[in-house]
Each structure stands twice: as C-alpha cells, then as structure tokens.
Amino acid sequence: MKNTFLARQPSVIVFILVLAVITLLATVFSEAYGSGLLPTNYVKILGKTLCLCLIAIAMDLVWGYCGILSLGHFAFFGLGGYMIGMWLMYARTEDIVIASMSKAALPPTPGEVRDAIGTQIFGVVGGSDVPVIWSFAHSLPIQLALVVIVPGLLALVFGWLAFRSRVTGVYLSILTQAMTLALSLYLFQNDSGLRGNNGLSGLQNIPGLTDIPQSVISIWFMWGSALALGIGYVFAGWIVSGKFGNVVKAIRDDEARIRFLGYSVEAYKLFIFTITAVIAAIAGAIYYPQAGIVNPAEIAPIASIYLAVWVAIGGRGRLYGAVIGAALVSLLSSWFTGGQAPDLPLGFYTIKWVDWWQVLLGLSFVLVTLFAPRGIAGMFDRLVRKDAA
Amino acid sequence: MLRPILIAALLALAAPHLAHAQDAASPSDTPAASEEILDDAGPAQATAPAPAGPLQAILQAHKDKVAKASRRTVDEVITAVREAGLPQGLTFLERWGDRELWQREEDGLFFFTRKADGQNLTLIDIDTGEEVGTISKGEMNQLKPNSGVRTVIASSLVASQLEDADPARRRQALNALERNADESHLEPLRASIAKEDDPALKARKERLLRVITISFGQTTEDRVEAIRSFSQDLSIDARAALNPLVVTRIGYSEGNPEGVNVARLLTPGKTIAREDAYRLLVDDGKAVAARTRGERKAALEANIEDGTVGGVPVAELSSQEARDRAYSNLVADGKAPAFVTDETMDAELAKYTFYEAYADSNTDVTTAAAETLDSIDQYVGLNRFFSLVLDGISLASIYFLAAIGLAITFGVMGVINMAHGEFIMIGAYTGYVVQQIIPNYTVSIIVALPLAFIIAAAAGIALERLVIRHLASRPLETLLATFGVSIALQQIAKNVFGTQARPLTSPSWLDGAWVINDVVAVSYIRIAIFVLAILFFALLLFVLNRTRLGLEVRAVTQNPRMASSMGINPDRINMLTFALGSGIAGIAGVAIGLFAKVTSELGQAYIVQSFMTVVVGGVGNIWGTLAGATMIGFLQKVIEFFNPSNTLAAQTYMIIFIIIFIQFRPKGIIALKGRAAGD
C-alpha cells in the first residue's frame, strides 16, 4: 500500500526533502541556532508562508480535486486562529493578572481574577464580563480540540445543507462567500464576544514561555509549520491517490455520472469539504501565533478569493502546484506591497509597485486563467513529461 | 367699540409712521420733518414740555405701581389701561414688557426713548409717539419690570394678539404660545377661536387649546377629554404635554400604599433590583447600609494583624466564603459595621410594599394619559412600520439596480461577473468626473446617466470580448478571471482617484425629504432611485418581451445551440447582453453615488448583495430579480428594525437566512422550468 501510494505520488518524497532542506537551511542561518544571517522577522515570514501553503493544499483538495470552488476556506483558517488565540490571550492575561494581584494585601478570589481578566481583555470593547464562549479558554487541550471541532462542525453543517440541496457550481461559490461574509460581519461586532474589530492580539507571546526569546520561538513555530505542512501534504497525497481519490476526481469531472454509478456524491463532497476545513483551521492555528494578531478583516471574503488565486496560479489538481502558488504569490505580494520592490521608471510615469502590484496580480491572474489554466505546475508538467494529462 | 380700537392699535404697532401721520395732534407730516424741528430747537438740555395725554394721565394715577411693578399689583395697572380702551395702550404694554419705558426723575412722567447723541436720550411721548425733546440719560430711570411682571403683561397681551386683524401677528402669537403656554392663556385662546376666520390658524388654535387643557384644564373631565383627543396624534408637542403626567417616582409603604396615585406595584428582585429597593430604605434610615463586597474587602485589609484577619489566616482568604467568615468575626469583635447578608436584606424588604406612583394625584387624568400614550405608541408603531416598508422599497430599488445587470448576464451566459461591482464603481466615478467638468448639478446628472451607461457598457464589451468569450464553457474560471479584472480595476481606480471618498453632489431639487408626518419621511434621492428602478424594470421588460433583441436573448438563455441553429448569433447576443447589463450597472453607480461616497470600494459594498439578489431571485428572469431584491431589501430592513443598534448583525442574520432559504428553493424564487432550466 505504502509503495503504491508513493509510486502514484512521486512528488511526496521530493516535496518532503525540499521542505526539510529549506527548514534546515533556515535554522542554520537563523539568529537563535545558527549564523544569524536570517533575521527573526524572515523566519516568521517563512513559517507563516508554510502555513499558507498548507491551507493552499486544503484548497487544492476541495477545488482542484473535488471541483468545489469554496470561497470560504479562509474563514475556517481564521476560526482556527481565533480558537487558539482565545487560549493564548486568556492564559497570558491570567498570568499577568495573577502576577499583579499577588502584590495585594489579600490573596485574590477566583471571582476577582476572572473579573480582572474580563476587564483586561474586554475593556477595549466596553465589556468586563468574560463571555460564555470563553468558558474553556483557560484550558489548552480543550481549545486545541476546538480548533478542529468548531470549524469542522461549521463546515459539516454548512456543507450538509449546501450539498443536500444540490447547490453546485457558481451558486455554491457565492454561498460559501456569503457564509464568509456573514462570519466576518458577525465577528466585527463588539458584542460577538471576540473583541470586535480589535480581534485577538499579542498572540506571539506564548504563555509560560515568556522567558524564551522570539527568535527561538519563531524557529520552533517554523518547524511546527513545516511538520504540519509535511503531514498535510502526505495526507492529501494519500487521499487523492487510491480509489477514494479517483471517486473524488470523477465527481469533479462529471458529478451526475458518478451519482448514477451509485456513489453517494454528497457524502464524498461533504467529507472533502469538512476535512479540508479542518486542515485550514489547523493551518490557521499555527499561523496566527506567528502573526501575533487575528481580526475579522482576516476572514473577509477577499482573503478566500486570494486563496483561490494562489491555487489557480500555482496549478490546480497538483498538490505541489498549490504549494508553489501560495508560496510564490504570497511572498511576492508581501515583497511588492512592503515597498521593497524597486520602482519602475517609464520616463513619463514611474510605476510604484505598492500601487500597481494589485493591478499586475489581477491581470496576471486573468492571463493565467486564459492561457495557462493548469497554472505554473501545468507548465512544469509539460517540461518534465510530454504525456502530461 | 373694541374692534376699531384694536385695528388702530395694530396700525400703531405695525407701522408707527402711519399711526403718527393719522394722529391729529401731530404737527408735522413726516418723522424727518419732526427731526428738523428738533434740530432747530437747539441743544438738548432744554426742558421738554410736559405732555398730558390720556394714557399718561392713567399712568400718573398709578405712578408707583408702574414704577415699582410687582406681580401682585401689576394687574391693577393693566386693567386700568385696558379699560380706557386707548389705541396706544397696547403699544405701551408691549414696550413696557420689553423694558423700553423710562420715567423722568424730575416729574415722574413716563416716556419712551430713543438713543440720541452722546449720553442723551430722545424722549417720545407715550400717547402720541411724538418726539418731544432730548434729555441726559442721568435724569431718566429705565423701568425694568421683573420676569413675573413681564409674564403678566405678556399674557394680557395674548388675548389681543390672538384676535389681531393681521394673520401674521396671530401666527406669531400662536408660535409664542406653543413654546410657552400656561393657565392664564386658556380663556383668551378659547375666546379667540370663535372669531378666527383663517381655517389653518383656527385648527392650530383649537389644537393648542387642547394641548393647554391637558395640563391646565379646570375640570378633570375637560382634561381627560383633551388627553383622549390625542390618541392618534404623532406630534412631539402632544407627547411632551402628556409625558409629564405619567412621570413616576418609586416609593414604599408599610402595608398597602395610601394617598398616592399608584402606577404599579414593584417586586424586589423582579421589577426593581433588590439593591435599589434596599437603598431606598437605607436612605430613609429604615435599614442598615449593606456593605458591598469591595467595602468588606477594604475592611478586611484594614484589619490585618499578624498575618490573620478576624482569626483567619490571610493566605486562606482566596475564597469569598472564607472572607465572609473573617468579616463576620470582625463584626463580632466590633471592628467592622454589621454585615447585611442576603437573608437579612430580603427580610427587611419583605416588610414593605414598593410601588411606582404618578406625580399627578388625579387618577382619571393619569389613567387617561397612560392609555393615550399607549395608543400613541401603537400609532407611532404603525407609522414606523409604514416607514419601514418605504425603507424596504428604497433599499430594494437600490439592490434591483445593482443586481439586474448581473442577473441578465448570468441568465444569458451562465457566468458570474465578479467585476460587476467595479462597473458600478465606474459609473459612480463617471458621475464624479462629469461633475468636475459641468458645474451645474442638474445638467451634470442628466449628462452623467447616459455617459455612465456608455462607459460601463464599453468596459463590459471589452471584458466580454477579451476574457469571458474565451472561457465560455468554464463558468468557475470565468468567476476567477473576472475577479482578477475586479482587483485590477479597483486598484487602478485607487491609483487614479486616490483612496479618499469623492463626493457626488445631488442637484438641489433632490435635497431634502418628503415629510409625511413626524414619523414617516422619505428623502427625494430615494424616491428618484425608486423611479429609476421602476423605469429600468419597465424598460427591460419591454426590451426582453417585445423586441427582436429580447426574443433572441431569451432564445439564447434557454438553449444557445438551438438558438444558433435558428440563425441567431449567440456571440452577438452575449456581447449585447453583457453591454446592457454592464451599462445598467454604470447607471446604478451614478444613483448609488448620489447617497453614498464614491470610493474604489464602492462596488465591493454591493457585489455580495447583488449576488444574493440574483441567487435568491432566480436566474434568467427580471421578475425573479425584482422578487429577490424586494425580499433582500425588506429582510434587511426588518432585521434592522428589530435590532436597530446593530446593522452588522442584521447583515449576518440576513445572509444566514438566505443560506437557509436556498435549501428550500435552490434555483431561486422564480426558477426556469422544463427544458429552459438547462441541467
């Protein structure tokens, strides 16, 4: 089984090797463990990019392999971030509060501690009580479980409703986009219990590890991200090879025919939709502690569309294509919009990339869709194998 | 007898020069002439002659009461002046009230004055209005009646002003009364109604009479009747007159409350917070003040001795139970004030009956007022609902305009154009640019509408020709490619016009609102957008159902290949529909720009709602889009109505509702049936 799986997905081994090399190189050049050539900031960017690659794999599974153009996977990503963020923020605030209260004359009661935490966290949205949804925020294991459970359940319910009524194609895309918009609008409210548009912040400070410098933590998180990406890649590769994968791809190609062959198309789609939502959530849970802040703007529909853009540019239906697309476009985006890219003087007009990158991205996206529907990976295939499907 | 006098008084007030000319005693014809005479009379210090008009005589008889007027005595003077029936009497009363009456120290005569040069005053006879000389300010005393006196004077003037022959003055008097009416105005107002011949003013007077009767009616029956007459009234002043009647205060009594007009009984813990009820008792010294948790904590902290408080080690005090124990020990030692436990508090509260009582002790009046206010509230609610319906229609028209272009292209070509929102934006920016060139707002709007259509349609044709045509069989790819166009267009707009919002000013005839009553008002812009939506709805119905182009569009919508074999060129139809749909988006952009700020993100704000409208309404049918827009518009407004403080939540719930709605009608409200449905 193992042999056949790897034989069908030769890219897995190459990918794992490349990933390991990149991570090792980054460690060797890092400030914490190596020569210091690579600033901590860049290590964080690398770690975050690996997480984005992971969600791109999820997107590729659901879109490239199963044909469901979901414009909502970034919502699951964000939700995962929120779930872990609740613990990070609560536990850290608890530490701070207890530290400051220990100087008082009387030892604090649990009620006092909770009130102080509430004021500390929710003062910014005019609240002082800890909302019900934070009931388990004190417990890391429960919040870790919620990282999987909450987005998974949302995807399950939403997917069940959508697939059951045979919503397909563009309708489904619009519906997932509506779900994302609804979620982000809900989170934007101050009384949503998740600090409204302030979001959860200070997530880069890991409770209990405050003595360890960020340069070290960033390396750990980069390794964590790489590990998650590696496992995600192997898992996705395993899913899409074999019989199950064939059914999934067949649904993409001709849904009605598969249904007539007696397969429960809805069950397959629901499984893929939910499992990819969970992968996205896990990616988010690793991403946001590195980013430091998660807020509703991250969940806005546009983010999920960009995700589709990455996968499309990288190449749908190829796992490595999704990874290449996510890494390339997200890194290029931050390079161009970060102001590091040199301006392009045209004589009569100077192109400032901060302003024109979006235009370039949009147009190149149109061009890729028009002329290279298989994306970068498709061109790659054509070079490597002449019989590329 | 009275009428001619009043007319004369009016003339004197409205046009002093005229009165002046009429006055037989006047030696000169014009004020200018009289000034000349004064100039000829030389320096001002000369003693003016002592005038002896009839009014002056009356005032001299009540000299002290005029000079040192008090609220009690002023009536006597007013009565004397009025009984004399002099035309100049009213002028006198007004100017007296306005502190324009002066008394000459030398002989106690009264004058009006006008500022002359330097420290001098020009004296004016109170009877004739003649200038009778000038005098140094130091020799005159200005009479400054206090506010009580002025009120009496003013209300004595009300009657005559309300019956004034000039409607403008009557209106003025009414305006003043509406702001500030009291008991004394009741009778003059009632008397003036019968004589009123202007229907509008008469209605106002009658209404005002009722408002005043609410507070100052003599009998309970009168007041109740007046109160009840407002049960369908939406105006603020009626509610302002009624509300003080139902003001309540919270009180308590042992046993049943007596001697108060009880609005309702209160149950501590339910209708009144226990702490609040208890505080009432504490404030009156009927109970011992409860110590709050914080106060008890402070007491504990103050009594730490050798690491223990009240015998309990400090380290153990990390639970409320332990702290309560320690505090009880402190109380037992007399080191802290008594600890009111919840049980004692409840026991104390149980001894009393708490109630809300009306400040007004007249039960009939308060009951009538409360019921009338309820009735008004219901009526306001009804009008709010009506207003809500209007809002819903207005929002639905906006969504219709924004979505109809999308619906047409989606219906005909089966592709979703993610750049549709940017075509709306293009329309709005077209309007903005046109306004920069043509300063006249009316003309610029008239130019901008067709221009926006043309430009957006051209953009649509370009998009169709260059991109969408090549992705004909791949709808998901179209969605993404048009999204690429969308972000590119948005960023280009941002680069060209900047990130700040650009104003699109509506012509002045679209400013303001159509006010139906105090609750319902619709702004003219929204009416205009509604008209525009209706217009395009009718136009599209006509084009699609009554023209050759429409026939071909419908044929391509139903089955492109069959249409093609019938000699229709689907390519051409696709292009034309795309142009039409995009053009309407441009028009929608101008309309939206009139009430929203024009930014590069304008289209984004409407695109998801437009998708919703299309999905909910169903594809390929204008009626479907109309139904979808109506449903979404109304839904949003209704949710906002129930949760007015939170429009974000409203949108969230609406989207959830739509997701659920799609479960039951996956193809929208109006779905194509049979072969036309395609798949």
TrEMBL record, chain A:
CDD domains registered for this protein in UniProt: TM_PBP1_LivM_like (cd06581)
Key words of the record: Cell membrane, Membrane, Transmembrane, Transmembrane helix
Entry's localization field: Cell membrane
UniProt KW Hydrolase keyword: no
A GO CC term assigned to this protein in UniProt: plasma membrane
Pfam families noted in UniProt: BPD_transp_2 (PF02653)
Protein name per Swiss-Prot or TrEMBL: Urea ABC transporter permease subunit UrtC
Biological source species: Pseudohoeflea suaedae
From TrEMBL, chain B:
Main location: membrane
Gene Ontology cellular component annotations, sorted alphabetically: plasma membrane
Single Gene Ontology BP annotation: amino acid transport
Segment forming the signal sequence: 1-21
Protein topology in the membrane: Multi-pass membrane protein
Organism: Pseudohoeflea suaedae
GO molecular function: transmembrane transporter activity
S-adenosyl-L-methionine found in the keyword field: no
Family according to the record: Belongs to the binding-protein-dependent transport system permease family. LivHM subfamily.
Residue stretches spanning the membrane: 385-408, 441-463, 524-544, 575-595, 607-635, 647-664
Alphabetical keyword list: Amino-acid transport, Cell membrane, Membrane, Signal, Transmembrane, Transmembrane helix, Transport
Subcellular location: Cell membrane
UniProt cross-references to InterPro entries, sorted A to Z: ABC_transp_permease (IPR001851), ABC_UrtB_bac (IPR017779), BCAA_transport_permease (IPR052157)
Protein known as: Urea ABC transporter permease subunit UrtB
Gene assigned in the entry: urtB
